[in-house]
Amino acid sequence: VGRAEEAAKWLRRMLDSKVTPSISSYNNVLNACAREGQLDEALNWMRELSCLRLRPDVVTFSSLVSVCTARGRLAEASEWMSKMENLALRPDGVAYTSMINACAKAKKAEEAILWFAKMRTAQVEPDVVAWTSTIEALVRSRRVEDAEQCLSEMMTSKIEPNVRSYSSIVNGFAQQGQPDAAAGWLESMEQNQVMPNVYCYNSVINAYAQVGRAEKATKWLGKMKASKIKPD
Q1: Are residues 62 and 92 in contact, defined by beta-carbon separation less than 8 angstroms?
Q2: Residues 57-94 pLDDT 10s
Q3: Rounded to an integer, what is the distance from CA 120 to the centroid of its chain?
Q4: Kindly report the CA angle at 184 between 149 and 186, in degrees rounded to 5?
Q5: Which one has a higher pLDDT value, 106 or 232?
Q6: What HEC string does the chain produce?
Q7: CA–CA separation, 229 vs 223, rounded Å?
Q8: How many CB atoms lie within 10 A of CB 90?
Q9: Which of 20, 77, 165, 209 could form a disulfide with 217 if both were Cys (CB 3.0 to 4.6 A apart)?
């Protein structure tokens, strides 16, 4: 039995016992539905709590935003964000991050960047997922210098970049034919004790090879082998 099903069972028992559940009880079920990607169930529970005239809160809406984005329903997720704001509720980090990450994955880079800007305007602190998804979106939009600035700001904000954060920048500069910039970020990655993956090394090696700098490509191939990462 999944967590959503178990939470729904307890909520149904309360209703059968003529006990009016609180919004927290419904939020538990909605959150569980969001984690399991059960969109239809979440929407059904939302309709039910509305019939009971319970006032949804930030957690309620964030769960709906999360489950909609998880199922690729970005337009619906955006509508729930608007409804939250219309009720004078302030979207939380979960909601904003869900929107940014989903837009980035759907290759809707400009929308991801817009949601990140809204998040910062609302003074909601981005987490590593929000920062990294925005960096990926900027790189996808061929705005690698902006992505680089975003990564620098991320580090200034005391959020530790992960492999995805760095590899996006490395790959972005490599694709733009700037192998030195790509290699510089790969070195920063190593210095900050974030283990590069094979894609990071390959990006730098291929970028140097494409501009005819075989000695640099060979150097990075040697570094990759020394780090015990097998070339693909």
Answers
A1: yes
A2: 999 999 999 999 999 999 999 999 999 999 999 999 99
A3: 15
A4: 95
A5: 106
A6: CCHHHHHHHHHHHHHHCCCCCCHHHHHHHHHHHHHCCCHHHHHHHHHHHHHCCCCCCHHHHHHHHHHHHHCCCHHHHHHHHHHHHHCCCCCCHHHHHHHHHHHHHCCCHHHHHHHHHHHHHCCCCCCHHHHHHHHHHHHHCCCHHHHHHHHHHHHHCCCCCCHHHHHHHHHHHHHCCCHHHHHHHHHHHHHCCCCCCHHHHHHHHHHHHHCCCHHHHHHHHHHHHHCCCCCC
A7: 9
A8: 11
A9: 209
Task: Report pLDDT digits (tens) over 91-150.
Answer: 999 999 999 999 998 989 999 999 999 999 999 999 999 999 999 999 998 999 999 999
